[in-house]
Structures are given as structure tokens and as C-alpha cells.
Structure to design on (401 residues):
């Protein structure tokens, strides 16, 4: 028996590592998948920051304070709408915000969503535009009056209050005296069948698709409200204000600004998105600036920089600029070696960073102008007249003086 156990033990030991290897591979797969999802979210969040309407909304929320909420209002025929009004957005005009766009910002962890209200909606078209109709529980007619009933206690007569003409009982003729009658509350009377009842049944009619249904058949949906994700407030502020500050600098330098900047790759034909593209005509030559910016809690890793280098290799760009907040990692810095990229590190709210950006751009423009001047000078033809010396004439050779 001992020998048999010794023979079977090695089999067990050879099988266990295989199971562990499979488990480890599954863990690695899950880890890689989660990493890819997070990278995608980070990329999409970066794209959202440069979308004009999102940028305006975030500026408004940052300006109004941490407690401001985006609360829905109801418009007849339209439903619940999200709006914001302020000096930043469209010159004090009210802007309607898409619920889908707000939900997308929640998915990107830029906004937070919480409960505001719940309402019934049409089970067919999900509209909230409905009317409520009373229905007789006996004959199902909608020809119903709502009234109050009064009981004359001495004779037990019960009828609508308006039937007691001059406060006299229609049955016995006695005058209604305090303590001798009582109000029995609100009642409904069906004018079709005469039925009296305390609680009618109800129909709902959707005014968008004309579907008729009961309250039980109606669907219920949540109406949310939205707020700024305060956990990302620093990142949001840096992303929103950085582009505005750089835009201000380039505007003062007479550049035409596009935010976001869209351009077509010359090799692949793909549409590339940049945080900003600026263009300016100088001495008949168009100067193009393509800028991306990236924000992190600590330092910017190589991925966004590598992607930026790829995009700029696809287009004609004279001044490539990459803004890293707060700074590039050491690995990313090594990648920039040999690249003609203007790297800006730090918050663009700092005056020294703003001055550096302006100075660096002006220096790059001067370098481009000088290079263009030198190339033009070298390409100019020599217009000096040809002359022929005496000895050249003998040899049949012409020379330039």
C-alpha cells in the first residue's frame, strides 16, 4: 500500500501546477481586459473634455460651486429637459442638455447621477405626456360627476348636497340643523347608469401615440439629477482651463483656433482628433500648430505621448505641442528625445507656464521664418550677365563675372 501511494503522489503533483497555470492565465486575461477598459475610458474622458458643449457645461459647474445640481424641468409635449443658464454659456441664453450626453459623462466618471423623481410613462412610446380619465367601475362610462353627499340623519336620506334646496331635506322637508346632518365626503356619480361610488377606476391616454391603458399597465421610470464629480474636480479644472488659457495665448498671436481639432491622416485617411489645432498665414505660408494635452494625478505615462507622435506623423504640422500636467514620466521624457515636439509641463494657470508657452511658440515661428528665408535665398537664380574674356573666346568658353 505504501508503494502504491508513492506512485500516485507524483501524478497529483504534476496535475496541480497545470490547474494553477490555467487559473493564473485567467487572472492575467481579466487583468488585461480591465486595463484595456480603463484605458478606453481614460481616452474617451480626454475626448469629452475638448468637446465644446461639455467644456462649456463644466466651466459653468466649476463657476457655480460644488453644490450646484442639474435638475430636470418638465415641458408639455416634450417631457423632462435638462437646462443650464449662465454667463459662460451662449451669452446668458438657456442651453438644453441632452440626457444621453449627461449619462455618457456619468459613465466617464465626470458627473455623478442621483435620484430626483419617478414618473409613469406610456408602455408603448415611453412618453410622459398623458391625460387621466375617471371611469365608472360598473358600466365603464367616463360620463362621471364628482360631488359631495349629505345624509339627513333623522330620516336617513342621502343625496348630493346641491339637492338640498334652501337647506331643506328633499325627502321629509325638514330644515337641515347643525348636528342633524353629516357630510359623507366626496363621491362620484355615473351619469350613464346612476351608480354612486367613492373611488372611480382610471384610464390613461398617451397624447403622443393615443394608446389607452390602465395605471397598472403604465411603466415607471426614474428621473435623475446630475452633479459634478468632486473626486475629479482637480482634473476637470485642469483640462477645462488649460485649453482656454492656451486658446487665449494663440488668439493674441493671431492664430485661428479649432477646438477640438480634426484633421485627416495623409497616409491612412483616418480622422485624427487633437485637443486643439491653430493656423496662421505668415509671409504667404500657413503655420499649423497641433496640440494635445494630458492630465494625471501624478505623472503622464508614455501611452498618450506615443499616440500623439503617431497622429502628428500623419499630418503636416509645423509646431507640435504636447502639454503634460503635472509632468511627464521619465520613460515618456526619453521618448521625446530626438522629436521636434514642444513639451510643456505643469498647469497652464501658472503665469510662468503661460509665459513659457508664448515665448516658445514665438521662437518656433521665428525659426520657421528664418528657415523659409534661407531656403528661398538659396533657390534664387543668379542673374549676373555672362561675359567672355579674350582667352575664353580663343577656347570657346564663357564664364560668369
Amino acid at each position: 500500500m505504501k508503494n502504491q501511494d508513492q506512485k500516485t503522489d507524483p501524478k497529483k503533483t504534476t496535475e496541480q501546477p497545470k490547474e494553477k497555470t490555467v487559473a493564473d492565465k485567467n487572472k492575467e486575461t481579466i487583468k488585461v481586459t480591465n486595463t484595456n477598459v480603463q484605458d478606453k475610458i481614460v481616452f474617451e474622458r480626454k475626448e469629452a473634455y475638448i468637446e465644446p458643449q461639455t467644456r462649456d457645461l463644466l466651466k459653468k459647474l466649476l463657476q457655480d460651486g460644488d453644490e450646484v445640481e442639474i435638475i430636470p424641468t418638465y415641458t408639455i409635449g416634450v417631457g423632462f429637459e435638462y437646462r443650464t443658464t449662465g454667463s459662460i454659456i451662449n451669452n446668458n441664453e438657456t442651453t438644453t442638455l441632452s440626457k444621453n450626453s449627461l449619462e455618457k459623462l456619468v459613465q466617464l466618471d465626470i458627473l455623478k447621477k442621483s435620484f430626483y423623481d419617478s414618473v409613469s410613462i406610456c408602455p408603448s412610446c415611453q412618453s410622459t405626456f398623458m391625460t387621466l380619465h375617471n371611469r365608472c367601475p360598473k358600466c365603464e362610462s367616463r360620463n362621471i360627476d364628482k360631488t359631495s353627499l349629505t345624509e339627513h340623519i333623522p330620516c336617513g336620506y342621502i343625496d348630493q348636497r346641491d339637492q338640498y334646496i334652501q337647506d331643506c331635506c328633499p325627502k321629509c322637508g325638514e330644515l337641515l340643523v347643525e348636528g342633524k346632518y353629516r357630510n359623507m365626503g366626496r363621491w362620484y356619480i355615473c351619469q350613464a347608469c346612476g351608480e354612486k361610488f367613492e373611488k372611480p377606476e382610471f384610464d390613461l391616454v398617451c397624447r403622443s401615440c393615443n394608446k389607452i391603458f390602465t395605471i397598472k399597465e403604465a411603466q415607471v421610470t426614474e428621473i435623475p439629477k446630475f452633479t459634478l464629480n468632486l473626486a475629479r474636480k482637480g482634473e476637470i479644472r485642469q483640462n477645462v482651463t488649460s485649453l482656454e488659457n492656451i486658446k487665449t495665448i494663440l488668439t493674441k498671436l493671431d492664430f485661428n483656433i479649432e477646438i477640438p481639432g480634426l484633421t485627416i491622416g495623409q497616409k491612412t485617411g483616418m480622422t485624427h482628433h487633437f485637443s486643439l489645432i491653430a493656423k496662421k498665414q505668415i509671409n504667404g505660408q500657413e503655420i499649423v500648430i497641433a496640440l494635445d494635452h494630458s492630465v494625471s494625478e501624478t505623472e503622464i505615462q508614455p501611452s498618450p505621448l506615443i499616440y500623439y507622435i503617431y497622429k502628428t506623423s500623419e499630418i503636416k504640422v509645423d509646431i507640435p505641442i504636447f502639454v503634460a500636467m503635472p509632468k511627464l514620466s521619465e520613460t515618456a521624457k526619453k521618448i521625446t528625445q530626438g522629436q521636434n515636439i514642444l513639451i510643456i509641463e505643469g498647469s497652464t494657470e501658472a503665469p510662468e507656464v503661460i509665459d513659457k508657452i508664448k515665448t516658445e511658440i514665438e521662437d518656433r515661428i521665428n525659426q520657421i521664418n528664418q528657415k523659409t528665408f534661407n531656403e528661398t535665398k538659396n533657390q534664387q537664380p543668379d542673374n549676373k550677365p555672362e561675359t567672355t574674356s579674350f582667352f575664353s573666346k580663343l577656347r570657346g568658353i564663357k564664364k560668369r563675372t
In short: The longest helix spans residues 2-49. The chain has a mean pLDDT of 82. The CA atoms of residues 83 and 206 lie 25 Å apart. The chain has eight helices and 21 strands.
